[in-house]
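Q: Got a minute? One more chain.
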Amino acid sequence: MDTLKIGASARTPEVDFDFDANVYRLKGECYPEDIAEFFAPLMDRLREHFARLRGARVDFTFELIYFNSSSAKAILGLFDLLEQTAKAGNDVAIVWACEEGDDIQEMGEEFAEDLTAAKFRLQLGE
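A: Always. Here it is, folded:
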């Protein structure tokens, strides 16, 4: 089973990536001291895996309750990678889970504006 699981810390989200099922989740707060140190290995694994996919279903869920501007750039990079994966012929679904009316909702909607191939869905909580 090809998975990547990293427990949440005070500054980093929980990472739950199941490469066999193509189900991915980031959950929690995201403001690591070193953005590159946290995100680069994740992006490398995802890029490598997504490059091999053909006609696959990919589900990526973001359940972030806070992130800073540096993390926003990294998240935008994830959106770009997911969009490229969809344009390569894969069925990519992005779920952005957040509280209704929260700033996180607005950020997710802004990230989704440039998507043309990947599907985006807001999952609003209370």
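A: Helices lie at 35-51, 69-87, 103-112.
Q: Perfect, thanks.
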